Amino acid sequence: MGGGGTWQNRTMDRIGVVDTMFARYDMGNEALDELRSCPGHGERFEVLRRTVPGFKDLGVECKRMIELDGCRIVIALGMPGKAAIDQVCAHEASQGIMLAQLLTNTHVLEVFVHENEEEDPERLAAVCVDRARKHARNAYWMLYEPDELVQRAGRGVRQGYSDAGPLVAGR
Hints:
Elements: E1 13-20, H1 27-36, E2 45-52, H2 58-67, E3 73-78, H3 84-104, E4 108-112, H4 121-144, H5 146-151
Parallel strand pairs: 1-2, 1-3, 3-4
Helix pairs in contact: 1-4, 2-3
């Protein structure tokens, strides 16, 4: 759907998921599965998925999903490689995602798993699963249950790894 503004006549909200072919793990599928388990899927909201070649393509696809497909929030998933150039490109991709947010006044949750976060492929895959699923749930909460986020404020909550926990000020 897109281009003609027909999405504006829909009664169901849309959450967008955009991922890349460059990633070494299918984080998009994890995000979709998590969103489909949320209350109201299929009644209150539907999920759209798009896949782009690499993470520098994420920004424009997020913007398209917001403007042409009527997504109220988008989850952008990518996996920068280990090389220094990959880290530079990840920064550029992040800038594009931020610009898409500002131009559309719509949240895009950037979910990057850097390949150099873990040497062990199984542990890296576990980070991908955890981060994609937790951010998908965050997107849901942002739209429908914002108090769930408020309850976690200042708690050192992490996506991809164990929570860091809160700091306690000495008195």
